[in-house]
Design goal:
Bound molecules: zinc ion
CATH topology: CNF1/YfiH-like putative cysteine hydrolases
Number of domains: 1
Distance between the termini: 30 Å
Strand content: 25-35%
CATH class: Alpha Beta
Low-confidence stretches: none
Number of helices: 7
Helix content: 10-25%
Length: 259
């Protein structure tokens, strides 16, 4: 089995004991239209194939568990606490968290997984208190400022200082392809200046602004800057393909940090 390809962020790679990756669509076993590394179990793909794909992602990441929610384009964020995981899958490594669009934990050995095809995965880390979050952020999540809510939750529950957090934004829908013809109905006026050209919105910059308004320094935010619609040979794209797979964006603490 060839190693999986993943986008990794320079800011996150500097944190001892942290593992992360935004995986491409390559390296799995699913058949078209989910070919090949689809990690969503609710979009029509063969469950056995999805299970093998999840196993490969976990092996690549190096954590004991993967945790993921049924994502609903809302703004509920769940904290995974210190209780033992519910191992409700045959392979015994997948923790199915409650429905929602964000996960936060300070547990070791759990990869927090967001499933994406054009939506952003926003990965957050507090190196000081050793807390991580992963957030699923499509345009509805942007409207609800779920990234800012994740920062607030880390602050309230774990004492995180926003100015100490690091953030990364996955490959996702870019300003080249994010056309919103009905933006006056769908997007708040605060977003309207973020048009790269008329009706095309820069959600990468919108997320950057929301994170900075939540207290993160600008140089603590890394945006992959790769558009999933433009690069469908490597990424699943909902806008480009409609029926398609979902990619894994994962962040976790290794069980045995090397420091
Ligand atoms: Zn594009």
């Amino acid at each position: 089995m060839t190693p999986l390809i993943a986008h990794r962020f320079r800011l996150l790679e500097q944190v001892p004991g942290l593992v992360h990756g935004v995986y491409t669509r390559h390296g799995g076993v699913s058949l078209p239209p989910y070919a090949t590394l689809n990690v969503a179990w609710n979009n029509g793909d063969d469950p056995a194939a999805v299970g093998e794909n999840l196993f490969r992602v976990r092996e690549s990441l190096g954590t004991r568990f993967l945790a993921s929610s049924l994502q609903v384009h809302g703004d509920d964020i769940h904290v995974l606490n210190g209780n033992p995981p519910e191992e409700d899958d045959p392979a015994g490594f997948l923790m199915r968290a409650p429905s929602g669009d964000g996960l936060v934990t300070n547990r070791r050995d759990v990869g927090l997984m967001i499933k994406i095809a054009d939506c952003q995965a926003v990965l957050l880390v507090d190196p000081e208190h050793r807390v991580i979050a992963s957030v699923h952020c499509g345009w509805r999540g942007s409207v609800r400022n779920i990234a800012g809510k994740a920062v607030a939750l880390m602050r309230e529950r774990f004492g995180s200082r926003p100015q100490g957090l690091l953030a990364a934004v996955s490959p996702s829908l870019g300003p080249c392809c994010a056309e919103f013809r009905r933006f006056r109905d769908e997007l708040p006026p605060a977003f309207w200046p973020y048009q790269a050209r008329p009706t095309y919105f820069d959600f990468w910059e919108i997320t950057r602004r929301q994170l900075m308004e939540a207290g993160l320094p600008g140089d603590h935010i890394e945006i992959a800057g790769r558009c999933t619609v433009c690069h469908q040979q490597d990424y699943f794209s909902y806008r480009g393909e409609k029926t398609t797979g979902r990619m894994a964006a994962v962040i976790g603490w290794k069980s045995s940090p090397k420091h």
